[in-house]
């Protein structure tokens, strides 16, 4: 019988042979085309200084929450912030979580019960899939953004039915056909759960995300907002009914047994929301950069359309270039990095074999010259 260390080593060796071994790397001085800091909030010295000033103004000096929300980690600060956030997202109530991953695990493991059914888009984030594994409901995937396949599977579902999607998908960067999907959910009395991680901050006049921008927020059972992307800070919240909030407080194990967010994280979220109110110019520049990238890539379409390189259609900050081979896509990413462009390869098994890609994230602070260099190096 193999020892545990031998088993672990063999699995790592298998990853090496498949050219899919993951490694940590330090951030660099390269041009950022890989982070989720779409509006530049994370690197904003102005926001950093504002957070520091607000921390100094707190009467209660605390380095940590000291416990879960149900023990010693609750505070007037977080309760006031939850009230503010629920108003901002036009919901009845909001509940804070330590991360979007934590929030998705909580909802999907606690709410659907044995005998219920969860339908989920095949391209939803790993945090959603991990949350599904923790629960006892039936789990059925449907083809990505395919409403016919979705309705066909929905017709045969049992028990209470929950549907889980992302408003903007984290790997392909395309949008969920939210209104049409919601119409089908209403037809079959299904409850819709929407992860707004990649639309918060960048969609809508106030950056409130796609549900509010399309005015469907009242018809969505639960919305998940993550603060670690466009807002550049940390934490997440679930927005929904007061009943939903109270249920999660009582039954969501990742919430119940996790040390709460420290005051610094809460102040950071509050300041980032203030900063978002004056972020029309960064959102405008991001939109311009997306259009510029799309137009420039369209001009190079003939060069792109080959067996080993294909652009994923996307109108968002997330752009993908399919290079279906772990070695080829990794080598292309290394070539870009050697040119001073921080682009990362997404390998299988993170994505399906054959859909390995360069995941390119555009930002408000990227220049047209940087985008030109990026495209020319991709096509080399």
Mind sketching the topology for me?
Blueprint: H1 4-17, E1 31-32, H2 45-57, H3 76-88, E2 93-97, H4 100-110, E3 117-121, H5 126-134, E4 138-142, H6 147-155, E5 161-166, H7 178-187, E6 191-195, H8 210-213, E7 222-226, E8 236-240, H9 242-251, H10 253-256, H11 263-276, H12 280-299, H13 301-304, E9 310-311, E10 318-322, H14 326-338, E11 341-342, E12 344-346, E13 357-361, H15 368-379
Parallel strand pairs: 1-11, 3-4, 3-5, 5-6, 6-7
Antiparallel strand pairs: 2-8, 7-8, 9-10, 10-13, 12-13
Helix pairs in contact: 2-11, 4-5, 6-7, 12-15
Index terms:
380 residues; alpha/beta; Aspartate Aminotransferase, domain 1; Aspartate Aminotransferase, domain 2; 2 domains; seven-stranded mixed beta sheet; four-stranded antiparallel beta sheet; globular
Instruction: Indicate the mean pLDDT.
Output: 94
Assembly state: single chain
Q: What is the name of the CATH superfamily of the largest domain?
A: Type I PLP-dependent aspartate aminotransferase-like (Major domain)
Annotated CATH topology of the largest domain:
Aspartate Aminotransferase, domain 2
The major pleated sheet works out as:
7 strands, mixed
Class derived from helix and strand content: alpha/beta
The helix count comes to 15
User: How many separate structural domains?
Assistant: 2
Poorly predicted parts:
none
Helix content: 40-55%
Tell me what the structure shows.
The relative contact order is 0.16. This protein is α/β, with parallel strands linked by helices. The protein has helices at 4-17, 45-57, 76-88, 100-110, 126-134, 147-155, 178-187, 210-213, 242-251, 253-256, 263-276, 280-299, 301-304, 326-338, 368-379, and strands spanning 31-32, 93-97, 117-121, 138-142, 161-166, 191-195, 222-226, 236-240, 310-311, 318-322, 341-342, 344-346, 357-361. The chain contains 15 helices and 13 strands. The strands form three sheets. It has a seven-stranded mixed β-sheet with strand order 2-8-7-6-5-3-4, with helices on both faces.
